[in-house]
Amino acid sequence: DAGGKPGFHKMNIELRDIVKRFGSLEAVSHVSLDVRDGELFTLLGPSGCGKTTILRLVGGFHNPDAGAVFFNDRDVTGIPPYERNIGMVFQNYALWPHMTIFDNVAYGLKIKKVPKGSIGERVSRALGLVNLEGLEKRYPGQLSGGQQQRVALARALVLNPDVLLLDEPLSNLDAKIRLQVRAEIRKLQKDLAITTVYVTHDQEEALTLSDRIAVIDKGKLQQVGTPWDLYERPANAFVADFIGINNLIPGQVREAAGAGEEITVGTEVGIFLCRSDVRLETGDPCVICVRPETASIGETESAPEDVNSMSGAVSFASFIGNAVRYDVEIGSGAIFRVDVQNPRNHKPYAIGEKVRVFFSTKTTLAIPA
Ligand code: ATP
Fold first, then answer.
1. Average pLDDT of 364-369?
2. For ligand 1, what atom is nearest to the CA of residue 56?
3. Per-chain mean pLDDT for the chain
4. What pLDDT sits at residue 61?
5. The ABC transporter domain covers which part of the protein (predicted)?
6. Which atom of ligand 1 is nearest to the CA of 50?
7. With helix as H, strand as E and coil as C, how does the chain read?
8. Which CATH architecture has domain 13-232?
9. pLDDT at 4 over 70
């Protein structure tokens, strides 16, 4: 392999129209996905949305009721996990407490009847990858949570898997260690260029770690894209809300328009001109979405034709380094956030002050509710 991926093979994963039921519950509904060679692909969604079930379908721990799983061009549907050459890491580490770190990592190699002579070297190399050299003789109980999770990672990597499957690997770690192990996982995954599927319900974790993310709700795929795609062009209100985009205002399409033209949306706090990437019809419920850094704040009533505006009162102001952040109450308790860039040239507004907020129609996005 001259491709710079020592020990790992080129591996694309495809899920084709997968359905998985548990009794009457359809836990996974017609999900089709491609995971590309060498990428870190995240399944993101709330508890119970089906993320773990999809991961287990990739690993072969579940079989689908319909659809197929491909590893490269090989149909692996129905093939058990041990014939898929995967490495899996769980939330709770799942280390054997009565075995040393060495034996925990060596276990899979022994099962695979790897010659004794090379086991020591492979275990050392795997522990080196996760920066745990020298801890071979300890027991899991003598390590911190972050160290235990790195052992679990070494145990998965020692087998040179084609695919790494990580199920909420950071959620048992406390905040500071979580950030550290997260950065390590990212670096290791990139260095090894191992195709990785990662499960989390934490949007920030997903946005910072992933090459691409699939957002899932109630067993259905909502959107697949890069972190930037999801942030810039959320497909619907669920995605926008789940990934933490501010300034979502529910409304209804008053006037649909042709492709590329602006549509008119009525909301409780005003009527706005918006762009839309998907076709929305007159009467459709929708949500308008304005990013705080694209809005501005002022006192005048008048706005140019291509700028939306509405009135409110400042309810909170804070300095966030490169911007001043205002939360403006726009009626009925709803808050609209404005990040004023370049605060040096800016006269501050006081809490309670009546203001108008402005946002270009070009940066006002209408998405399906
Ligand atoms: P969490 O983050 O809470 O683990 P998840 O998104 O990973 O959630 P899944 O574990 O995939 O969700 O579960 C999806 C749905 O399927 C849930 O409603 C769950 O209760 C159900 N489910 C999962 N595994 C089984 C099973 N073996 N038998 C019956 N129902 C199951």
1. 94
2. 11
3. 92
4. 95
5. 13-243
6. 11
7. CCCCCCCCCCCCEEEEEEEEEECCEEEEEEEEEEECCCCEEEEECCCCCCHHHHHHHHHCCCCCCEEEEEECCEECCCCCHHHCCEEEECCCCCCCCCCCHHHHHHHHHHHCCCCHHHHHHHHHHHHHHCCCCCCCCCCHHHCCHHHHHHHHHHHHHCCCCCEEEEECCCCCCCHHHHHHHHHHHHHHHHHHCCEEEEEECCHHHHHHHCCEEEEEECCEEEEEECHHHHHHCCCCHHHHHHCCCCCEEEEEEEECCCCCCCEEEEECCEEEEEECCCCCCCCCEEEEECCHHHEEEECCCCCCCCEEEEEEEEEEEEECCCEEEEEEECCCCCEEEEEEECHHHCCCCCCCCEEEEEEEHHHCEEEEC
8. 3-Layer(aba) Sandwich (3.40)
9. no
| Residue 341 clears pLDDT 60, i.e. is over it | yes
Q: Where in the chain is the domain with CATH 3.40.50.300?
A: 13-232
331 versus 11: the higher-pLDDT residue is 11
CATH 2.40.50.140 domain range(s) in the chain: 247-368
In short, whether 212's Cβ falls inside 6 Å of ligand 1 is no
Q: Which CATH number fits domain 247-368: 2.40.50.140, 1.20.1640.10, 3.40.50.720, 3.40.1160.10?
A: 2.40.50.140
From the CB of 203, is ligand 1 less than 6 Å away? Answer: no
Q: Is the CB of 221 under 6 A from ligand 1?
A: no
In this model, does residue 134 exceed pLDDT 50? yes
Residue 53 CA to ligand 1 center (angstroms) comes to 6
The model carries a pTM of 0.90
